[in-house]
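To close the section, here is one more complete example, presented without commentary so you can practise reading it yourself. The ligand is flavin-adenine dinucleotide.
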Amino acid sequence: MTDIAVIGAGMGGLTLALALVQAGQRVTLYEQAPVLGELGAGITLSPNAVRVIDWLGLGDAMRAISVVPEVQWTQHWQTGDVLRQSGRGADFAAAHGGAGYYHIHRADLHAMLAGALPPGVLQLGKALATVTTDGTMRFRDGSSASADVVVGADGVKSAVRAALFGADQPQFTGQVAWRGIVPVDALPTAVQALPPGIHIGPQRLFMRYPVRGGRLINYAAFVELNGWEGEGWSIPSTIEELLTHFGDWDATVPAIIAATPPSGLFKWALHARQPLASWVQGRVTLLGDAAHAMLPFMGQGAATALEDGAVLARCLTQYQPATALRVYEDLRRDRTTMVQTQSRLLGLQFQGEDPAKLGAGPIRNEESLGLFHYDATRTPI
Ligand SMILES: Cc1cc2nc3c(=O)[nH]c(=O)nc-3n(C[C@H](O)[C@H](O)[C@H](O)COP(=O)(O)OP(=O)(O)OC[C@H]3O[C@@H](n4cnc5c(N)ncnc54)[C@H](O)[C@@H]3O)c2cc1C
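Output:
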């Protein structure tokens, strides 16, 4: 039987490991963190991601810890006028074969995936230092291991990608992002009652939605801004700093920012990675952000990592390793390159000079591009 090693127990690595276990494969999942955990932030699961969760047999568990929005608004930055309303409730789910649209806390999703792994698969405190094309892995604790297939699911700063595909030069995009989570009780009643929304304006964007049964509001804010390029997801910021960018927006936005707990606001500069020419070197391949880190404007980073996990697990179950890795790359690279490109373009469109136009004409977003219809669990391999 093939020995498969997965590096990184994030959303993509956990999905792959779980799918391989369920297919009766032998897999070891190495994670650098000594204790499993996730960022205090929200995540949106669109139907293409939900199909993978359902396929893993975790649909009921996921739905029990998610919020289903009836609609999602796109709003004018200054007036708050609703420019677009997208249905996200029962009709939306029915139109996508039962796979709906869910808001969920990242930590809850991560814990659910990790909790479904049988004992012995996950090895914590194992930070990969380097890997060679023959599948030999060396860890920072001095130990080593080998496998027939090694999958780098180790995120945007992937050690696997650096070892085999060269250290890339991420480019600052001129955008800085903030994230925060606010207890809903801390907000004015009128704001508590709003459906989830994306507020768009020139050079700025603010997205908000509920998680944890609606008890918390998660938000992410984006500003075109030069002069600061810190890359990490836990760099502290302040309410005052974020209000300098959004203080003059429709009252909903500053109200949410002002209610953020003092230690609960973080910022990071958005960097773009160029698509790789190839994902396979010998016995090693990449998955998720390690392969195709993207800007967040389509909310498809985790979704595409889950898709990768399902397709790669199916390929490794159906074919010998060398063929499996080639088929996997062929099936996944064009789609993820397209999503990378379109995410960047959508960010530019959202933050254009005339947000009111967004409601008027066609828009190339994750929905109109048809991304939600992809089924990684059934696509022919
Ligand atoms: C605030 C925020 C909101 C987001 N919202 C959404 C959203 O709504 N929808 C969506 O689809 N996407 C969203 N994304 C993007 C999404 O979270 C990522 O694209 C996704 O997590 C990528 O999954 P991954 O498994 O490839 O990497 P990660 O989830 O980053 O996991 C990588 C794992 O590898 C481990 N690791 C790293 N280096 C090593 C090493 N050397 N050795 C061993 N282990 C290692 C890390 O500790 C980590 O556990 C959001 C991202 C952020 C930051």
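Once you have examined the tokens, check your reading against these statements. Residues 7-13, 30-33, 41, 43-44, 127-128, 153-155, 159, 179, 220, 233, 288-290, 296, 299-303, 305 surround flavin-adenine dinucleotide (CB under 6 Å). The chain has twelve helices and 19 strands.
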